[in-house]
Please model this.
Amino acid sequence: MVNPYGELDRRILGEVYGSTETVDNLVVLCDEHNSRWPGSGDDRKACEFMVGRLEEYGLEDPHMEALTLPGWMRGSSKLTVTSPIRREIPCIALPHSVEGDVEADLVFLGDGPVDAYEERRSEIEGNVVMATSRTPLGMARPLHRSEKYNRSVLAGAEGFIFMNHYPAYGPPTGDISTIIPAIGVSHEDGSFLARLLRRKGRVRVRIETRCRNLDVETWNVVADLPGSGGGDERVVYGAHYDGHDIAQGALDDGTGAVCVMEIARVLTKAAGNLKRRMRFILFAAEEIGLYGSRAYVEQHPDEVKHVRFMLNFDGAGRAGRQGFQLNGWPALEPLFGDVADAIGVDIPIWQRISPYSDHWPFLLQGIPTGRMGDPEEARRRGGRGFGHTMYDTVDKADLRVHRECVANASIAAVRIANADDWPVSRRSREEVEELVKAMGYYDTLELGMRLKAYLTAKKAQLRPETKAYLKRMRGSWEEVV
Ligand SMILES: [Zn+2]
Model:
């Protein structure tokens, strides 16, 4: 079949492969603006840098949009074994942990399967739970860190230790709710604690977390490429630019952010050939609760109604083939198949839905969404990789993968923005609810409701930051993440 965009595709690909903008921009984001942590000051400087670049590229109206969120600032935290031996263990506090001191017995739950918390409630009550970052065998959905933490809280735990199940990556980080002190430890140190507990029968630990929960202001960056056909309908490409504060957040998700900026630059060379408007968004504060994308959807209720498709670049451009994950939209496969044909290489196109990134607030609005990446990336690499560890640094970035991501997504943008018969329409609210239930997240939702009821009952004894957290809890099915 003749490719109607042959000439345009070649122009786009030439632009992509003749440029090193992604790496150049990533080095600035990482080496000058660190993790772009919300409220750190580096987030603002990074946004100003991105706006400046997008202006140079000739995008329409690049600007920052402010939002306020419950932020978190790290102090120094400590984990000490106090009995039967005395030893200090390296650890990091998990974002949104409360500040506090707790000394209690260690309870190791292995991978922390769903039933373990109620079954071992009498051991857990008043003590410190340790669970690994692995999803227990046999579970159909991923078992997220927050769920292990929340279930520990409901069983009466006073402290929580999140142990990396991957060796050699150091302690893992990741956001949790603001209730009890929570820390991450490396696979090696967690294994030591587990062995000690097995040999001695009883181990006491002391957790001291030093950190601050406070409201902070941060920004999304938004820029447009107007469509030639006028009209309100638009395509959104977005990625979060913030990383975790313990690293540079180069692969998660500085890389996705610079790929979106590069797609924006490349597509200005195709301006006039895209019928519908492209909107590029660099989201703030994804890592501590999807605040940037949630705020965006809330701040733009009218525009969101006109989004034809939203493609999320979280983890895109970091490794493997750069294909398209569609969030339950089989009717879109032929269109992405055309992209593979145009490029002439095999790229994965698959259906899957996970709530843990910035496409989620759009998906909840019924908007057709997808994510770029490789379904086999995790298996090939043996896990999450450097993401959420202190080793997520810019030296790991790979220009060849950036180019493949930018090329495939730019070629796709031409098809998505120009298709006159868009084969899908948005889901109704009922359909979205059904979908979330069918994904197996009903448990998680129920857990959120239980946690809310539990905290409400204990309201008088709660720390001020936990009271503030309780006030923010939505207690609805949107609480899945
Ligand atoms: Zn991410």
The chain is about 40% helix and 20% strand.
